[in-house]
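Data card: per-record layout.
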Amino acid sequence: MASLPLDLYPRSTGLVRWVELLSDGVMELTPFPHLSQDEQPHGHGHGSSGQGEQPQGLFQIHALPIFHERGGGGIGGHKSGDDLAFTVSRKKFVIKPFNLPPIEGDTEGPGLSEDKKPKTADMEF
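The structure for this 125-residue chain is written out next.
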């Protein structure tokens, strides 16, 4: 296993591309900008434990090893274009699907109430 900081060695350089070709799996951890201790939401500081931990960054998979010709070694039920987030604590490293919360006052999307949805009689084709 090797770790390269992308600030010093961008993925566009020849050396990094060569190392990626020689590697079986290539993953990228991109941290979110840090919040100071007083700006963090209540319960998400040091010593907090629970399932509601905030993601600490994005986890991107660029290459995975393929174990056989049928494609074994997939991403475990996730499509390669899915956004994944990671959380690190003293005891565990967790990778979960990442979804942004809805924007306040958002009127579009799957959360529309029944009275605001367009009716089939209102639509013309």
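Known properties of this structure: The radius of gyration is 21 Å. Residues 6 and 12 are 10 Å apart (CA to CA).

See the next section for split statistics.
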